[in-house]
């Protein structure tokens, strides 16, 4: 008998056992089977939340859509401007004057001639008739003022500029 085939056979048997857990040692009589305790692993990401179905860089890639922060002083000044403009826009509303030109004249009387003014819109792909009204946005020191004059009321707000369009209103998109 040659040692070559016998040595190869034993080596294969030993290698087949590599990586296998050792047989458990029973504390009781040899006839008593031993069963390892079951183990389970659950991973929750992030803790107490469901993992979002977005790419890992989604927030960074969409940050350009978010308005920049305004300083406290800029917010205070823009809010004061809103309170001065509101009564004049309310006069337009009371007369049912929702024209773009009338809204532009009111804002220009406060020194804001570079104003993005648009007629009210409906969602793309609908056959609805746009409601009467004028929407607008313009830059002020350190931020933006935006709003609308419609039959339902005068809405005004402040925010920081958005990277891609500043204080202008966003156009129709898909």
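-> sequence recovered:
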């Amino acid at each position: 008998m040659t040692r070559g085939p016998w040595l190869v056979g034993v080596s294969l048997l030993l290698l087949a056992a590599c990586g296998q857990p050792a047989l458990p040692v029973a504390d009781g009589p040899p006839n008593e089977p031993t069963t390892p305790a079951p183990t389970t692993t659950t991973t929750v990401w992030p803790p107490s939340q469901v993992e979002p179905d977005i790419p890992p860089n989604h927030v960074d890639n969409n940050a350009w859509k978010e308005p920049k922060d305004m300083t406290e002083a800029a917010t205070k000044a823009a809010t004061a401007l809103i309170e001065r403009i509101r009564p004049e826009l309310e006069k337009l509303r009371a007369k049912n004057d929702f024209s773009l030109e009338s809204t532009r004249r009111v804002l220009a009387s406060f020194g804001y001639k570079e104003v993005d003014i648009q007629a009210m819109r409906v969602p793309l792909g609908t056959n609805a008739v746009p409601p009467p009204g004028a929407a607008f946005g313009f830059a002020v020191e350190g931020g933006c003022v935006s709003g609308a004059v419609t039959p339902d009321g005068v809405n005004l707000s402040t925010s920081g500029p958005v990277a891609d369009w500043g204080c202008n209103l966003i156009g129709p998109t898909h």
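Confidence is low (pLDDT under 50) at residues 22-26.
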